[in-house]
C-alpha cells in the first residue's frame, strides 16, 4: 500500500481544502468533511497501489521478487480483494462528503485501474495517466466546497505535470534511464515551481510560499541532478523517492498561497511522517 506515499495523497487533499476555503468557510470549519476526504484519498491511493502489484505480479517475480505477492506473503486473491475494498471505501467516504467528491473519487479509481492495466505500458500516456490521478486528487480536496472546482480546476495542471515527470523518470529505475527523460523532468519541475510562484505572487503570498518552495526545490533537484550525472537505477530510484515525498512541501506552498500559514504548517508536518515511513516501507 506504500504508507509513505499515502501520506502525500492526504497532503494533496488538505491543500485542495485550503484552496477551496478561500471562497467561503475557513479551513477548520469543514473538518468533518475534511476527515472523510483524507481517509477517502488514503483508501484510493492504497487501493490503486495494491492493484499495481496485482497487475504486475508476473513481472515482479523477475524484477522485484521481494514484493508482497511474488514473495508469497500475500496471495493474488487476497490482494485483489483488498484493492477492491479500499477503492470501494474511498468512493463511499467521498460520497458521504458530497456527490461531487464521490464523482472525483470514482474518477481517481478508474484512472488508477486504467494506468495499472494499460497506461503504464505507454511511454507518454502512462505518465499522463498517473499525473491525472494526482490532479484529480487535488480536485477531490477542492470539491469540499460546492462550486470551488469551477474556480480552481486550472491548478490541477501542477500535480499532473509534476507526477508526469516523476513517472517518466521512474521508468529507468530498474535498468537505468536515459538523460533525455531526466532533462525533461528537470524542465517540468521548474515549470511547476514557476506556476506556483505566479499564483503566490498574484495573491501577495510570495514570501510565505518561498518558505516551502525553496526546500521543495532543493529536495527534488539535488537527487535529480545526481541522476542526470550518473543515470543508473540506484540514483534514479532516489530521485523518484524524493520527488514523491516532496509533494508534501508543494502542497504546503499551495495552502499558504491560498489560505494561511497554519494549514501550510499542518501539511508540512506530514513530511517527517512520510520520511519516517519511507525507511520501513517501499516508496517506488
From TrEMBL:
Pfam families: UbiA (PF01040). Its main location: membrane. It comes from the Bacteria. It is a multi-pass membrane protein. The keyword Membrane applies. The chain crosses the membrane at residues 7-28, 34-55, 76-96, 102-118, 138-162, 182-199, 206-225, 245-271. Keywords: Cell membrane, Membrane, Transmembrane, Transmembrane helix. InterPro entries: Prenyltransferase_related, UbiA_prenyltransferase, UbiA_sf. It is found in: Membrane. Gene3D superfamilies: UbiA prenyltransferase. PANTHER family: CHLOROPHYLL SYNTHASE, CHLOROPHYLL SYNTHASE, CHLOROPLASTIC. NCBIfam families: prenyl_rel_EboC (NF035940). This is 4-hydroxybenzoate polyprenyltransferase.
